[in-house]
User: Which sequence fits this backbone?
């Protein structure tokens, strides 16, 4: 709650800087509180989440500070704190905090339940770690490739590297990460509400990634809609999930978020 309160300074930080640093903070807190109960798998997953959260939030902060074009885009797409009443801002803050807790719940419950003496099979933990690590690598690599491509031509859409496979490879990496976290917790829950929290968190982040893909598509259509190369790219490259022929979600108004 303390970390994500940064959003009261600037609204978008609830879901950007606050998001990344909150995930890292939760992982660090669990590692400290249950250090003696950690296994190699759970310790590695917590370390991955710390690396992920710090990398993502710091990357977003640097991009926001350095890129005037990005700052302009954010100002067009995002609302300011003045657009909301204090009560609405508090509700958004608490909602974000609740989602981040639900997202990280699988590894939190696995560690806490182990500390309470609950013994389970660690196979899903290791499978989850592997998938999460792959997701983090893909997301970071996609961000790097986009930065490099924009240095060459800042006014063109990116369709090289991972972007040849899917139009939002960074979002796909995010989905993979949280799929790994979700799988990591399977087999370690001993209460229905623990299952409920983890399912809500997983569905929530997948929804947000598709919602983000929709916003990106609308923005790219606005910027490159008259470019025939972009239209061909859009019609032939899945928007979020590789090999799944979903090429557009802009008309899916239920993804507004």
Assistant:
């Amino acid at each position: 709650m303390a970390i994500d309160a940064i959003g009261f300074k600037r609204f978008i930080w609830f879901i950007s800087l606050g998001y990344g640093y909150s995930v890292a903070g939760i992982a660090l807190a669990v590692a400290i509180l249950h250090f003696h109960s950690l296994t190699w798998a759970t310790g590695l997953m917590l370390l991955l989440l710390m690396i992920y959260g710090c990398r993502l939030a710091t990357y977003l902060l640097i991009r926001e500070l350095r890129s005037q074009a990005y700052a302009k885009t954010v100002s067009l797409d995002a609302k300011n704190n003045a657009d909301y009443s204090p009560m609405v801002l508090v509700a958004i803050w608490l909602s974000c905090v609740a989602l981040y807790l639900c997202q990280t719940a699988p590894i939190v419950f696995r560690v806490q339940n182990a500390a309470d003496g609950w013994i389970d099979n660690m196979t899903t933990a290791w499978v989850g770690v592997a998938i999460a690590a792959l997701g983090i690598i893909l997301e970071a690599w996609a961000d790097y490739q986009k930065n490099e491509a924009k240095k060459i031509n800042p006014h063109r859409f990116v369709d090289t590297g991972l972007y040849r496979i899917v139009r939002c490879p960074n979002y796909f990496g995010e989905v993979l990460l949280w799929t790994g976290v979700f799988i990591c917790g399977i087999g370690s829950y001993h209460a229905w509400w623990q299952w409920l929290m983890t399912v809500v968190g997983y569905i929530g982040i997948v929804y947000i990634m598709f919602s983000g893909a929709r916003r990106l598509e609308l923005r790219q259509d606005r910027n490159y809609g008259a470019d025939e190369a972009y239209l061909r790219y859009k019609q032939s490259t899945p928007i979020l999930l590789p090999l799944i022929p979903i090429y557009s979600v802009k008309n899916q108004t239920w993804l507004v978020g």
Observations:
- The chain is about 65% helix and 0% strand.
- The chain has a mean pLDDT of 91.
